Amino acid sequence: MASTSYKVIGTRPIRHDGTDKVTGRAQFGADIQLSGMLFGAILRSPHAHARIKSIDISQAESYPGVHAVVTGTDLPEQQQKVAHLGEGDVNLYHLSQNVLARQKVLYKGHAVAAVAADDIHIAQEATQLINVEYEVLPPVLDVLEAMQDEAPVLNDDVRTDSMAGEESKDPTNVAKHYFYEKGNIEKGFEAAHVVIEREYRTSTVHQGYIEPHNATALWNQDGQITIWTSTQGSFMVRQQMADLLKLPESRIKVVPMEIGGGFGGKISVYLQPVAALLSKKSGRPVKLVMDRASVFEATGPTPGSYIRVKMGADREGKLTAAEAYVAFEAGGFPGSPVVCACMCIFACYDVPHGRINGYDVCVNKPRSNAYRAPGSTHAAFAAESVVDEICERLEMDPVEFRLKNAAQEGTRRVDGVQFARIGMKETVEAIRDSEHWKSSLEGKYRGRGIASGFWFNVGLKSSVTAMLAADGTVSLLEGSTDIGGTRASLSMQLAETLGIAAEDIKPAVVDTDSVGYNDVTGGSRVTFSTGIAVHNAGLEMRRQLIERVANIWEVKVEDVQYEDGKVRGPGGKEFTFRELAAKIHATGEPITVKGTSGSENQAGAFGTHCVDVEVDPETGKVDVLRYTIAQDCGTAIHPAYVEGQMQGGAAQGIGWALNEEYVYDEHGAMRNATFLDYRIPTCCDLPMMDTIIVEVPDPQHPFGVRGVGEVPIAPPPAALVAAIYQAVGVRMRELPASPPRLLHQILQR
Predict the structure, then answer these.
(1) Phi–psi pair at 481, nearest 5 degrees
(2) CB 64 within 8 A of CB 247
(3) N or C: which end of the chain has fewer CB within 10 A?
(4) Which of 237, 370, 199 minimizes the C-alpha distance to 299?
């Protein structure tokens, strides 16, 4: 746990937004109500792949109660330009086409047109009066099929951008080829005593956030646009809106509402530009809210994948070489997180010789988006499963193998990055020393599995403003969307810096006009990077308070010290923080400070999970009996939130492993686009999860913080399939290991 030298960090204060959340006072995106507001509806493609020959909106425009109808032609034409969204990049030409299709639709559910009307029912009825003539084209739904020369090509402008040198001259579905190499791969495999090569597949999986996408827009008479929306990055929305509408960012204000989950899926814009166009055309504010089927069919899930992994180890269990072929389904437009998978796939280990090929491939599914450590879960499933087979072949304990090969400070990854101080080994040791690992597992058809996972985390840019009030409280204005309790974690870091109670900080997440620039809430960066900005603001407030006290006491600044929330001077003079705050207005100007960050970056974080399962061999159903998570969080600011992130990520990883998948028919239609048929875990499916917080402080952060939110989704599938193998002797190489799929494998033994 946290060092005892901290007074606030490591404690568990009540969250600052807790009362608003539990009383229903918190305002989410769909809660916004404006005078004269209209309601919007989207017309979506019934086809997975088709050319748009014509769109006739005349009947919809004349329908009673309709005030505006827009299509893709209402968006400005875009050139090929890449925008950086913090957690992934996007080509603005493709992003515009994804918001509203023009020449082609590339997946069932692709937005084609939109209507704004007096109520939602009129809007929905009017969309059915829009006549779209399609030329239906054959869809391609599998990543390997899409890579074949004879496959239907989705985007005429896509050519393979390759790090390996070869470039495609003709249109292709393979948008990007990543290539990384370290050492001599042939030499490495020659030195191996055991070599395992296997193929793995994962299905398309949704983030499963409860709140659907939403946006309310007011394009005012003066040309100013205000957007109220649930988003992981209000500044990212502003940037995308400015680029897509070809307007200065100064014309756009984004007001972030409370967010009911995102996990990476609420970074790209979908409804915001459409709502703005409808508002401009109607002269009224317009609200758009997706229904659940549209969320599944038309927003960015994590991609399906094909991964081939080959790893070799010597007789002592030391890795000699590792090779991976990673192909991700990007969806209708390029931009899958395959590069992240390449960075993560062997990151847990010291691999002397390695080679990684990664491919970003377009298929007729919704454009993929980030999902909690995007790409790392796919990678861990494949690499850790091969590790489990190597351990079996060598008759070696899987904990011992990981400790022997664990990446550590100075280890260079296959993609070239050299690790600073990290805690991979410490997480494995935590599992080794846990009561869970030491306990016996008895009973038929029961098994235990272990797996590790990695996420590199990021830094990026943050800004905050802090204002001292006369009663000794401090208002904290931040621009980082609070998804996982960052109001509390940031307030606690400011309180620690100032030496006051966390309850004396009043945090607020404000709009893009009210605080300096902040990058996206993603990449496990907010408690780290915005925390540094908060710490810097606290140091500046301390500096100004010292100057103020020096003037009051008429002493030199260097004779005044700030310590434990008190200002002390010569002769035993002393002010508490609250006493000094009461004198601020009488002794000078108000104290308002800012804090920024941007140069620091995280070293990455690791987790190791242990799970016990019981398999019913007659149905293929897997029951999770016990689960333990060990993760390096650097320093636990608020341990309860750290534990919650670890448990939440593991729960999503369990769902991914055992049940969750998009089910498509041969025409590219999703057949399970509801929470009834898309099976996410409930409390009935999960045991109480034990957490072990490992603290290996990151030296880049003043309190040693490492982001914690993404790592825990990576190990669960690999740990579960290892446990399933121990239980029934079947190695699952395709996710999810759902009852029908697992039962089929059991019967094939």
Answers:
(1) -55, 135
(2) no
(3) C
(4) 370
Q: What is the pLDDT of residue 512?
A: 98
Pairing of strands 286-289, 38-44: parallel
Cα–Cα distance between 535 and 23 in angstroms, integer? Answer: 31
Q: Tell me how far apart the alpha carbons of residues 331 and 143 are, in angstroms, rounded to a whole number.
A: 9
From the options 3.30.365.10, 3.40.50.720, 3.30.360.10, 1.10.10.60, give the CATH code of 18-26+459-597: 3.30.365.10
Sorted by where each begins, the domain ranges of the chain are 18-26+459-597, 32-137+225-260+266-281, 305-457+602-747
Residues of the chain with pLDDT under 50: 1-2
Model pLDDT, residue 1: 41
Upper half-sphere CA count for residue 406 (Cβ side, 13 Å) = 24
d(C-alpha 437, C-alpha 448), whole Å: 9
> Any residues with CB less than 8 A from the CB of 212 and at least 6 apart, and which?
30, 289, 290, 291, 292, 294, 295
Residue 655: what are its φ and ψ, rounded to 5°? -60, -45
Main-chain phi, psi angles of 434, to 5 degrees:
-75, 155
Domain 305-457+602-747 has CATH 3.40.350.10: no
Q: Do domains 18-26+459-597 and 305-457+602-747 have the same CATH topology?
A: yes
User: Cα 657 to chain center, whole Å?
Assistant: 18
* Interaxial angle between packed helices 376-394 and 639-658, expressed in degrees from 0 to 180 and rounded to the nearest 10: 80
SS3 546: helix
> And the tokens for 219?
């394009």
Minimal CA–CA distance to 204: which of 89, 299, 309, 109? Answer: 299
Residue 311 carries which side chain, given as an amino acid letter?
M
Query: How far is residue 621 from each of residues 98, 609, 613, 659, measured CA to CA in Å?
Result: 38, 21, 10, 10
Q: Give the DSSP H/E element, type plus range, for residue 277.
A: helix 272-282
CATH class, range 32-137+225-260+266-281: alpha beta
3-class state of residue 605 by DSSP: strand
Q: Look at residue 168 in the predicted model and tell me its pLDDT.
A: 77
Who's near 142: CB < 8 A, 6+ residues apart? 329, 363
Q: Is residue 398 helix, strand or coil?
A: helix
Q: Cite the DSSP H helix spans in 29-181.
A: 58-61, 92-99, 120-127, 143-146
223-248 burial by CB neighbour count: b if 16+ within 10 A, else e?
Answer: eebbbbbbbbbbbbbbbbbbbbbebe
